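Mods, move this if it's the wrong board.
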Amino acid sequence: PMIKKRILAVVAVFLVIIALLAVRTLYLAGAFKAIKPHTGCERLIIGGMPGPEDITVHPETGLAFVSSDDRRARAAGRAVQGRVFVLDPAVETPAPRELARTGPGDFHPHGIGLFVEPGGRTLLFAVNHRDDGPAVEIFEVEGDALLHRESISGPLLVSPNDVCPVGPRSFYVTNDHGGRTPRGRMLEAYLFLKKASVLYFDGDAMSVAAKGIGYANGIAASRDGASVFVAGTTDRSIRVFRRDPASGRLRRSFRINTGTGTDNIEIDAAGNLWAA
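Not the wrong board. Structure tokens:
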């Protein structure tokens, strides 16, 4: 009986520790934070896009591109594919339009980003969680269609989340975890291990541009390309890096303490930083 009581006590302590770690993780991610409006913005609910994950806005047309992947349907065993929608926030009742797409049949988009060339050609970059391994897909936007141009993958793409294009074939992408297994990623979350990173693809090779981040999530670059912003969800901050446009190297500059778990971020046409 004494041994049994000791075993039960050890199990109870272990469960309490797990519960406390889970609660702390939720707290750091902002699950218990009260949100108070500070502007006169009106809320508009737009449906028809299952599992919307990321939004990026065209700096010239103002059109919003939305990545969509019905993860609940996939978890239930249904063979559904992800989609990309576009809508115009300037109209009174925005209606999402699905973009036709060429390219890989296995398409499950996560973070997305736009690159607009001086001549007006628009490229959409999308993190794709394919069954054969993650990749970054590059599409050319032609009217209401996405024409696939390239798939870029590599061993450093462990757990990609968001992508920030800085050229027609160059981009930064966040790894929200460093672990390659579900168990390793779970330990990162509960033990607050800062193993997330930012990768840089220069058009030829991929390299680690920054590391030591707690759940690297959204990523965006300033309009002049001199700064890169990275949201750290369990860091409760946005890290700001100075960027060398020639080499793509990132140098830590400062951090913005948000006091909550930050997800996707976006730079608008006026250079303002918006964060979810």
